[in-house]
Amino acid sequence: MSGPKSRCCRMALVFRTVAQLAGILLSLLGWVLSCLTNYLPQWKNLNLELNEMENWTMGLWQTCVTQEEVGRQCKDFDSFLALPAELRVSRVLMFLCNGLGFLGLLLSGFGLDCLKIGESQRDLKRRLLMLGGTLFWTSGITALVPVSWVAHSTVQEFWDETLPEIVPRWEFGEALFMGWFAGFFLVLGGSLLSCAACSGQAPLASDHYAVAEMQDHCQNLEMKSTNLKV
C-alpha cells in the first residue's frame, strides 16, 4: 500500500514544484512586458499616404514622429487633463498593473517551496503564494483593460463614417499586442501559483526522513509480531 501512496505523493510534489516555477516565470515575463507596454510610445501608429517617409506613433506619455532624413523625434504630452479619457485611465491602470505585479513577485517569491527561508512556516508560505498569485491575476486584468479599451476606441475612430476619407486614421501599435501578451501571462502565471498553493503543502526534508523512519519501524514491528505468532 505504501508504494502507490508514495508515488502519488511524489507526483503531487512534482506537480506543485512545476506549477510554482512555471507560474513565477510566466508572471515575471508578463510583468516585464507590462512595464515595457506602459512606457513604449507605439500604442497607436499613423501612416500618412501623402508622405510615406513620415510615421507617427502615440503612447500614454508622448507622441513620436519618424522621418528618414531627421530621424525619430518625440514630444511629451503637455497636460494630463487634455488627454482622451482612455489614455488618462490607461495611465492609472498601467501604473497599478506594474505596482501589483512587483508586489506579487515579492510575496510569491518568499512563498516558493524551493526558497529555504521560512521553510518551517509552511502555512505562511502557502498564504504568501496564494496572495502573490491573486496579485498577479489582478495585475493581468488591469493590463488587459486599458489595452482593450484603447484598441476599441481605435477601431471606432478608424471606421467613423463622419470623418472624410482623406483624413488619416490611427491603427494598432505594437505596444497593444505586447500588453495583451503581458496580461495573458500575468493571469496564467497567477492562476498556476494559486493552484499550486491550493494543491496541498509540500513536505519538508525532515518530514521525509521522519516518515521513512516511521515506515521502517512499523515494518520491524510487523515482522516481530509475525515471528512471535509463528
Descriptors for this entry?
230 residues, alpha+beta, five-stranded antiparallel beta sheet, 10% strand, elongated
Description:
It is a single chain. The chain is an alpha+beta fold. It is 66% helix and 10% strand. A 5-stranded antiparallel β-sheet has the order 4-3-2-1-5. Strand 2 and strand 3 form a beta hairpin. Helix 1 packs antiparallel against helix 2, helix 1 packs across helix 3 and helix 2 packs antiparallel against helix 3. The two termini are 24 Å apart.
List the helices and strands and how they pair.
Elements: H1 2-39, E1 44-47, E2 54-58, E3 62-67, E4 71-76, H2 85-111, H3 122-158, E5 171-172, H4 174-198, H5 205-229
Antiparallel strand pairs: 1-2, 1-5, 2-3, 3-4
Helix pairs in contact: 1-2, 1-3, 1-4, 2-3, 3-4
Radius of gyration: 27 Å
**What is the helix content?**
55-70%
Most strands sheet = 5 strands, antiparallel
Number of β-strand runs? 5
Counting DSSP H or I runs of 4 or more residues, the number of helices is 5
Write out the strand line-up for the largest beta sheet, numbering strands in chain order.
Answer: 4-3-2-1-5
Any low-confidence stretches, pLDDT <50, length ≥5? 202-218
State mean pLDDT (0 to 100 scale).
81
Order of helices and strands: HEEEEHHEHH
What overall form do the CA principal axes indicate?
Answer: elongated
Strand proportion: 5-15%
End-to-end separation in angstroms reads 24 Å
Question: What structural class do the secondary elements suggest?
Answer: alpha+beta
